[in-house]
Amino acid sequence: MQLNPDICYQALLTHDRRFDGVFFVGVKTTGIYCRTVCPAKTPQLKSCTFFSNAALAEKDGFRPCLRCRPELAPGNGIMDSVPRLAAIAANRIEDGALRDGTLDDLANDMGISSRHLRRVIEKEFGVSPIELAQTQRLLYAKRLLADTNIPITEIAFASGFSSVRRFNTLLKERYGLNPTDIRKSTGRLRTETADGTNMSFIEPNILRCEIHYTPPFDWKKTLAFLKARSTAGIEMVDEEKYFRTASFGKHNGWLIVEPSENENSLSVSISESLAPAFPSVVARVKRLFDTFADPRVIADCLGELANATPGIRVPGSFDGFEMAVRAILGQQVSVAAATTLAGRVAAKFGAHIETPFEELKLLTPIAEKLAEADVSEVTTLGITTSRAETLLTLARAVAKGELSLEPGADVERTIETLVSMKGIGEWTAQYIAMRALSWPDAFPHADLGIRKALNMTSKNELIAASEKWRPWRSYAVMQLWNSLPATTPIAKESPAARKTRLAKTVSNKKPKTKV
After folding, report:
1. Based on the number of CB atoms within 10 Å of its own CB, is 479 exposed (0-12), middle (13-18) or buried (19 or more)?
2. Superfamily of domain 5-64
3. Which of 20, 95, 294, 447 is catalytic?
4. Is 447 annotated as catalytic?
5. 48 catalytic residue (yes or no)
6. 492-507, pLDDT tens digit by residue?
């Protein structure tokens, strides 16, 4: 992204939050780089160098500011700031893709060559994939040092470093600081109270962090959407907070998300048992609450449609397979009925977990577990035989690695794979793309709610009407659903779409599916 220094400096002078995360400023006299909202005295223009991302600033030798903390800056919208491939790769790297696998693995999962992936990242960010990953690791480590009392050794490994020595060396090289320096600067070291006892600035066994977003953010609408679809045992929603369990390999725990007292941010509380997976937890919370979205850019595209609910988000998914199962269960039934079925599936196939909350006692079922089941086990839950077969087909494809249901997967290829499965039509595939893949341009035209909101029934007419909302049609869908009366069922396949899906099943010489 090309930056105009004069325009950037004007934004810096006003501390305009609309530019927070869009670019960073490196101050030559101090060797530090900051966010546009940094409370420190604004430097002169001649002392400023502007960067489109944190990794580029660090490559140029600048250290992150300890006051404004660049690691807390909100991300930019995927479709407008950088080409989609580079943005997806950056998000996957942030989610730990290069910690848990290789660049070849990431490229293969995205359906491109590793050479092309390396070229895309270097072109858009000015750094190599490894340098980008190192910056992410250091920024996450810095966040853990500043926001928690986790031992430094555990932080090093949780952030993806293979050794404490390597962590300390890179931290010193990049930031000119050691871990203790960072903790001193934020008051994170333990202090003594008047009676001489040790006091931590956070509750024991709980990690806390903040996730910033670009305002506006309609928290109540987002929470209401998730509450109606929360799976018993796995999720819980009260008036202001979202609770859920989480599992990353052998690390299991829970988390809470709520509005922060600080402006334009969400507060996340995470059980200490998830500390080794901290970067992945934060990345998934960002995905679930769509904190990367830029409402202003989206509103400009949607026009009058965006006026009804400013700051609406497209809730993503914490787990792509979990979301896809939910989408299949939601075919031709109400949201409430699908929620009941999802709870039964969780109780049958989800592992148990102990938490401080009576309502949270299950982990989301993994594909490998469901793939081992037979149809009769699933139908005992009140699920039709045809739908049970569809769930098992999906689970086996995911378990075998034939299908990825996470952001970064090739959207067109994923949709094609989904609709080729018996019992999955265009509506289900588009809905999965919208939420599991976090695809901002999904448009389930067969949805009854969309057809009612637009007062249209023709597929061609619906698609033509949606063209003006590209590439943000997923947000248009949320606006259309919100325009309906509260009693109007949404996220249901239309009779015409159902007929098409059944016809496809027959043409494949498979038994007709009753849905």
Report:
1. buried
2. DNA Methylphosphotriester Repair Domain (3.40.10.10)
3. 447
4. yes
5. no
6. 555 555 666 555 544 5
